[in-house]
Specification:
The structure is a single chain. By secondary structure, this protein is mainly α. Helices cover 64% and strands 9% of the residues. It folds into 2 domains: 83 residues, Orthogonal Bundle (Arc Repressor Mutant, subunit A), CATH 1.10.10; 191 residues, Four Helix Bundle (Hemerythrin (Met), subunit A). A hairpin with a 5-residue loop joins β3 and β4. It comes from Paraburkholderia hiiakae.
Length: 281
């Protein structure tokens, strides 16, 4: 239904929300009121039809809308229906990149924010790091150490992407969920959106990698000693030096939108690459 509203002598067209969109809003309200968590199931389609007095096609359109938003997963079959899921970080990144695509965001802008947040994130994680976390941090460092293995451009770029996993591990240990979310989001932006020219000298990649490995090892050492202030200071140093390397390597943000096919296949590529290298050796 379309209605007209007259404003200062001009007819303004106002579109009424579609019935499926209204139902989707009501299902969101249902999720909130019933305090449903990821893994909880929504009422079956027939129940939702009866609850909102709409057709099966309207319910399915509403559920599809919520699935596109990343709030639910819809399955078919006798036991099918909608299930609440946690909105994936990849989907959030995609929505943010859709927004930033039309803004003039630079690598300097990203690292200015990281310089403020990463030291606090790392410092806050220190008291909560477990032996499993330290093992993961050390494994990541070894994985990203460019001193061994082949030094082709593709592998070195993947190592720089995998460097971000070190920061993800620290983020996961920080008890502040909002700080953790923001830092993980920035990490994923860097991993997916910063690209380096193919003619960037291998020596520059190796220099950046060696710098990351060195300071990551120092951060782990200080964290094992539970030296919060030392970890904070090292991360400030790290976030100050990293953008200098990126600029020398002529890194830039990809000027295009992220495709669904790209976020669905996001994997930690270094692990599989390392395994392949070991097999070849």
């Amino acid at each position: 239904m379309v209605t007209n509203r007259v404003r200062s002598g001009t007819a303004v067209e106002i579109k009424q929300p579609k019935r499926a969109d209204l139902v989707a809003e009501e299902i969101k309200r249902l999720i909130t009121e019933k305090d449903l968590k990821p893994g909880d199931r929504l009422p079956r389609e027939a129940e939702l039809q009866q609850l909102y007095s709409v057709s099966k096609s309207t319910i399915r359109e509403a559920l599809k809308s919520l699935e596109v938003q990343g709030l639910i997963k819809v399955s078919t079959g006798p036991s099918g229906g909608g299930m609440v899921v946690e909105v994936p970080l990849d989907r959030t990144l995609q929505l943010l990149q859709n927004y930033l695509f039309f803004k003039d965001v630079s690598i300097d802008d990203i690292y200015t924010v990281r310089q403020q947040l990463e030291p606090e994130l790392a410092a806050g994680a220190v008291p909560h790091l477990t032996e499993a976390d330290f093992a993961a941090l050390e494994a990541n460092i070894e994985c990203c150490d460019g001193a061994s293995g082949p030094h082709d451009h593709g592998r070195l770029v993947r190592q720089r992407q995998e460097d971000m996993t070190f920061h993800d591990i620290l983020a996961a240990a920080n008890p502040n969920p909002f700080l953790r979310f923001i830092c993980e989001l920035i990490n994923e932006m860097i991993r997916q959106l910063i690209e380096f020219r193919n003619d960037t000298p291998i020596a520059e990649h190796r220099r950046f990698g060696a710098s990351n490995v060195k300071i990551h090892r120092e951060i782990v050492k200080a964290a094992r000693e539970r030296d919060v202030e030392r970890v904070r200071a090292l991360m400030v140093e790290h976030m100050t030096e990293a953008p200098k390397h990126v600029k020398r390597m002529k890194g830039k943000l990809r000027g295009r939108l992220i495709l669904d096919s790209e976020i669905r296949k996001r994997v930690r590529m270094i692990t599989s690459t390392s395994a392949a290298d070991d097999k070849e050796a």
